[in-house]
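Something for you to look into today, if you have time. Could you write out one complete protein record for me, on any chain you like? Leave the record below and I will have a look.
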Amino acid sequence: MPSVAFYTLGCKVNFYDTEAIWQLFKNEGYEQVDFETKTADVYLINTCTVTNTGDKKSRQIIRRAVRRNPDAVIAVTGCYAQTSPAEIMAIPGVDLVIGTQDRDKLMTYIHQIQEDRKPVNAVRNIMKTREFEELDVPDFAERTRAFLKIQEGCNNFCTFCIIPWSRGLSRSRDPKSVIAQARQLVAAGYKEIVLTGIHTGGYGDDLENYKLADLLWDLDKVDGLERIRISSIEASQIDDRVIEVLNRSPKMCRHLHIPLQAGDDSVLKRMRRKYTTEEFARKIELLHEAMPGVAITTDVIVGFPGETDEMFEAGYDFMKRMKFAEMHVFPYSKRTGTPAARMEDQVDEEVKNERVHRLIDLSESMQLAYAQPFVGQTLDVIPERDYKGAPGTGYVMGYSGNYIQVVFKGDESLIGQLCSVRITEAGVNECKGELISTAASMAHQATAAG
């Protein structure tokens, strides 16, 4: 039986794409083996280029695969492969470079290389691509939530970001295909679907009269689907129709990840973000009205070129006012090939570090402040795994619909079930709770009573 080993760097979308590529190998009778410990016939490295370090790490892993088994076919895909195929082809031992498209042709290339051992550079211009590449993932190693990729690429060209050049322009998956895939995932036992993409909220920008709100309503009608989560959405993409579906559909998770990136208008402008702090604040306010108790998480870049102490302080105060449930804080890092890397006034590393720590402290206090009002309330939680803080002690952990991580007493049979859990104690990274009932036991009682 031929074998394949995978190594994935970078974001959730890359992990989704690797799962999709695995399906192609599986259909050809391959078995998947561990990258670190086993010798494989094919090594596939799915690369990242979002930072310069992403490139470097990608090259290290490729060289590691070549050392593992010089006779194996070494195939490289992903964002770094798309933007710098020549750099990768120059690494001795690489057989195939394929980028972020044409992956449905992967097996054909691999068969060809196995026969004639001639290296192939199959990367072509991503900017000309207008079609969403259909790659299904019917199953995930993680049993409780399924990712469903609905969109690829981005049209924003923020000055710090290389991604439009590695993923191309925004293109949406055909709605019929999304719904069919959602039904398949529900049939496989998933209760929660996370809609994902490179610029997920841009879904429908390239479709006629069909936008994200339409897709959400169509998913709302899928029987057996309990929770719909949007992995990330821009403030500018949250229009009245999206707010209406968040307000009215009981399946929409009370959690949204909305990247802010900076809390100061002049920094936002240099980043080429498409909103002001005032517009952002207004959207957040509307969301709190539509979904009381909604958790809003965000991304922030610290120390963007030209960020003065005053701009940072203004941003700090703005974030505090927004009452986020959690912030993901990143120090700005230069990405070669982006306008921001060439800007004057790069911020000193020491200053960046100090600002990062201040924002992480702020994030932790906001996380606690968000969780506290839920003490005593009962939330829906889908346990994901044994409690990692103390494995084997009879506790499980999972996320509530509004993205609070909850730990409670219960055995592993609860994993993947919808549970009602009363929150007993609030904490920074996790809250404690007690199990009240499960959806299965509720249905059982209802049948008994009826």
